[in-house]
Design a protein that fits this description.
The chain folds into 2 domains: about 5-340, Alpha-Beta Barrel (TIM Barrel), CATH 3.20.20.210; about 355-445, Glutaredoxin (3-Layer(aba) Sandwich). The chain is about 45% helix and about 15% strand. The chain contains 19 helices and 14 strands. The strands form 4 sheets. It has a 4-stranded parallel sheet. Helix 14 runs parallel beside helix 15 (about 320-330) and helix 17 (about 375-390) crosses helix 19. The chain starts with a helix and ends with a helix.
Length: about 450
């Protein structure tokens, strides 16, 4: 059975002989060919070459062709900031100063769409036996790219506008889906990191209708779907299942076993959630192999696809990804190899700030990495905005868990989920991006 067939059977809720493996191959595959992230995502030949090499080395059952949530935003007027080790980030928001709903729909010949379509067509031809994922920026994250963090105030102050903007962003999504389906993509996946940052009430009020239309539309088009979310979206899992997706992709912030209880009630496939930093980036091959085996054994062979929690960081060691592949393809041998193996704790001393004697308010934004995680990016943007309000009375520091000392710092601060905001050493916002008034009031209370 080919990987493509295995993924299809998984998404049709069939019991399988083994668990499918989908490495979320984002910019990490540039390592295989010596290209940086900016080269990979702007040069179709380099992206294609890297995809071919990734398929060869990682033996996936399925994989995304391009993992970049800024393709649509760039065409719609957002400026991008490029980096060598991560996808681009949005650096300007065309609707930040004016609450209007655009009418422009991206055309096939605009921006980087022609490059993406060409690579999809070429890779489909040379990789007929694996399931290909077409990833598209989800409506809420796209709306945030356009409107900035103002969207979180709009939810309270201008709900009709939010609903209209999300309908527009859903139109953009379905248009992009049509382009990708024409190239032979097997699974169309909205990637919407910011879903984890809103309450169930807000999801039901603003997200349910557009997402129901989105997934109904994909089903009518005859393709499978997968709903990717980042952060601790536990509170929204039931609603996410009810909008009609075939699969939910979750990250390490969510308890995989508890999540599967929810998805199984709806007969929705669950995908995830190997830890990106502690295991894949900073661990070794045996760490990756053991984590994969533990998840395979815990989740069973129905309604589960093994995958990283999100797209892998650029510097993720190739051998760690191959370790997961080995666990999937030969689980009995992998079990013997990791039997009795215990991952070593990070032995790192961290110097914490003297919170009680600061001459300013210290806002620590704890993130996966704001340059790669949209939810983290908007959490940091919300904090950075406070400098214009309080000046040098406030200091903003990002603590990325891609830096080992910050993993230890999370434990010392008592932070369980990312992104989060601590103010003077106290956890104030966890996996919820505060609106401007909330954060202003919280910081002001400490001055």
């Amino acid at each position: 059975m080919t990987g493509r067939e295995l993924i299809r059977k998984a998404l049709n809720n069939e019991e399988l002989k083994r668990v499918p493996w989908v490495p979320y191959t984002g910019v990490q595959i540039g390592q295989l060919t010596g290209y940086n992230a900016a080269e990979l995502l702007q040069d179709g030949d380099k992206l294609f070459e890297s995809l071919v090499e990734a398929e060869k080395q990682y033996s996936p059952d399925g994989m995304p062709v391009i993992f970049d949530l800024q393709i649509e935003a760039e065409i719609l007027g957002c400026n991008l900031k490029w980096a060598e080790d991560s996808p681009p980030t949005v650096s300007s928001h065309p609707l930040a100063d004016e609450a209007v709903v655009p009418t422009k729909i991206p055309r096939k010949d605009e921006g980087r769409i022609p490059m993406a379509l060409d690579v999809m067509n070429r890779f489909r031809t040379v990789a007929p036996d694996i399931a290909l994922y077409g990833l598209i920026c989800g409506p809420f994250t796209l709306a945030s790219h356009l409107r900035s963090t103002n969207i979180f105030m709009d939810i309270y102050d201008n709900p009709e506008y939010v609903s209209n903007l999300l309908e527009y962003c859903t139109d953009v999504f379905l248009t992009m889906a049509d382009y990708y389906i024409e190239t032979g993509m097997d699974i169309i996946a909205p990637v919407d990191p910011l879903i984890s940052q809103i309450s169930p009430d807000a999801f039901e009020q603003f997200m349910f209708k557009p997402y129901k239309r989105l997934f109904d539309g994909l089903r009518e088009r005859g393709v499978h779907s997968s709903f990717f979310v980042c952060g601790d979206a536990t509170k929204n899992l039931d609603l996410m299942c009810r909008v009609g997706t075939d699969c939910l992709g979750i990250d390490e912030n969510i308890d995989l076993i508890e999540a599967k209880k929810v998805t199984d009630r709806h007969n929705v496939v669950l995908s995830g959630n190997i830890q990106l930093t502690v295991v894949m980036l900073l661990g070794n091959q045996r760490d990756s192999m053991k984590t994969a085996i533990d998840k395979i054994d815990a989740m069973g062979r129905k309604n589960f696809i093994l995958a990283p929690g999100c797209d892998m960081p650029y510097n993720t060691p190739v051998e760690n990804v191959i370790g997961v592949t080995q666990a999937v393809q030969n689980p009995n041998a992998a079990r013997k190899l990791v039997e009795g193996y215990v991952k070593e704790d990070l032995d790192i001393e961290v110097e914490m700030p003297d919170y009680e004697n600061l001459d300013h308010t210290l806002v620590e934004v704890l993130t996966i990495d704001s340059s790669t995680c949209a939810a983290c990016s908007y959490m940091k943007a919300a904090a950075d905005d406070m400098v214009s309000e309080f000046g040098d009375k406030v200091k903003i520091i990002e603590r990325k868990i891609t830096e080992p000392e910050n993993i230890a710092r999370l434990d010392l601060l008592g932070v369980a989920n990312l992104p989060s905001i601590c103010i003077n050493g106290e956890v104030k916002f966890v996996s919820v991006i505060p609106n401007r008034d909330e954060l202003k009031e919280c910081i002001g209370a400490g001055l």
